[in-house]
User: Fold this.
Amino acid sequence: MSKTKAGGTAKNVHNSPGQRLGLKVFGGQSVKTGDVLVRQVGMTKRPGRGTFASRNYTIHAGKDGVVKFASRRVKKFSGRSVPRTEVIVE
Assistant:
């Protein structure tokens, strides 16, 4: 026989910190090679000239310069094209 009453289960008790995603540098700001420009989950913003994406989709500066944002259309797997923001370092 049990010595304690039924305690039930606890759900949704985890408290994880935020991932600090988003833009780290804005348009017109100067950057050095390797600086983090955008932290993101998935490819919401695309790397353009002078930038590269790492394995976790973080966009870094590939050279020294000034950050600029542009819009471009990208084809999805379904064939539909959608606008996406492109990050450029000039």
In short: The radius of gyration is 21 Å. The chain has a mean pLDDT of 92. The longest strand covers residues 65-75.
